[in-house]
Specification:
By secondary structure, the chain is mainly α. The chain has 4 helices and no strands. It has one domain.
Amino acid sequence: MAFCPVLRADLRRAYAMLDGGRLRRLAGCARAPGVQAVTVYRFGQWLADRSLPVRLLLEPAYFVLNGLVKMLWGIELPRRARICATFSKPIRR
């Protein structure tokens, strides 16, 4: 799975759903629990297909980020879940 193009599309959709100026929309995306959860999910999906040295280096970061999303927002989105590239959910404002 290509991590950056799919994540960019997710971020563009979230950005388009928000109102206001550029800075307000960027901040809204960064603060949105759903955007954070999908970003960690996409990172985990991408990481699963990497070589062993890359996984050994980055797995701890994935587990910490995934744990934070679970603790802070109560969102559990395991990387083995299959979500299409056009995944979108309205952002709470």
